[in-house]
Amino acid sequence: MRPIPRISISRRAVAALARAIRPMRPNASVETPPQHRAAAEASTTPAVRPFSRLRERVAALRPPGEGLLLLLLAACHHEGAAVKASRSIALPAAVHAGAGLRIDGRGRAWIVEPGRATVVDTTPNRPPSTMTVGKGVPIPAPLWDVTGRLYADSGSAAVSLLEAATGHAGRERNWRPAGPLARDPKGRWIYAAVRHGGVMGLGPVQLLPRWGWPEAGPAATALAVSPLGDRVYLALAADTVEDADPAIRTLDAQSGRMLGTADEDLPVRFLAVGREETVFGYAEGGGKGSVFALKPGAGGLAERWRVSLRQLELEAPVRVRLSPRGTRLAVFSTAADGGGLRVLDAATGAVVSNAEKPPLDAAFDAGGRLLLLYPRELTLVR
Question: What is the pLDDT of residue 21?
Answer without folding.
Answer: 46
